[in-house]
């Protein structure tokens, strides 16, 4: 069982998790919810876009530039598989060499 390395980075996992609950989210909303800087979010969003997991749309609201992030169908499928893999890992019984502390 391998976890998707594109999603596995903590900030990227948070981005994908947040976007999985919405059709689209404004960059500033994602940044504020994840409590990261613009540059950190931009770097990780670009990596997700390169992988085909996120679509980045730029536009304007009035005269102000805005950026929106959207999970692609491929990204949704990858996130579902990532979560399913985590569930399989967590659902596995502990080996005999690893036991709870008494």
TrEMBL record:
Highest rank taxon of the organism: Bacteria
Alphabetized Pfam families for the sequence: HTH_34
InterPro entries membership: WH-like_DNA-bd_sf, WH_DNA-bd_dom, WH_DNA-bd_sf
Protein name, entry field: Transcriptional regulator
Domain Winged helix DNA-binding: 11-90
